[in-house]
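User: Sequence in, structure out. Go.
Assistant: Echoing your sequence, followed by the structure tokens.
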Amino acid sequence: MRRREFITLLGGAAAAWPLAARAQQRGKVARIGYLGLGPASAWSSRVEALRAGLRDLGWVEGKNIVIEFRWADGVQQLPEFAAELVRMKVDVIYAPSSTMVEPARQTTQTIPIVFSNHADPVGIGHVASFARPGGNVTGLSMLLTDLAVKELEILTEAVPQAKRIGVVWNPTTPSHAPALRAIEDASEKLRVRLLLQPAPTANDFDGAFAAMVQERADAFLVVPSPLSTSYRSALAELALKHRLPAMYGHRDYVEAGGLMSYGADIDDLNRRTAL
């Protein structure tokens, strides 16, 4: 089975958009609580993809749905915004990735929580399985734990002389723990040395690159997170400044100036989450 077909199968099995039933029960305009992280401008294509998917099903803002957006400046603000959406009694909380799902699920066990591009929902326990998520959390996965290994493999093929590879990751992203374990296992088989660079905030990017340069990195890989996606242009500029070839987790980074990427079509996952 091809990877794209596998992702589609997971989406069909795992995601069950609960908006229609709850709106009918309430007999009024439905409300979606959107729990986001970073500047809204960095996520415009994904928001529009979600809107397009909803429109395909007849859900139109200002007509029969309202989307309540909450954009956190940092992960520490996410629990506050999740609690606010719960107090508003929204019908569904849309929490795109593991970073947003965790505070949402800590806040409510009754309001449905839907994710669009969770990296590893089973691996970190946000759902019981893809076929039977259980609880109030469901959605689509970008399969990061598997894809991160392929990203490392492609990077070593594209830069065959690379033996010391930096890995920029975010310790505040729940799904990065299993992804790092998979990358570390793969590095042994590929006979490359990893230079792990944690970057929990955008202010840490300069230091991460300085450390990679000091440790003579030949290339680097960015494990995608809401933070790195929000600041993808800055990462591309730093890579160019330090002349380091890089692999990223999806094409948003390449469109911002990054060298190459391998991963799911995140806009498409956001659109299909509505289905």
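User: And one key feature?
Assistant: Residues 1-16 have pLDDT under 50 and may be disordered.
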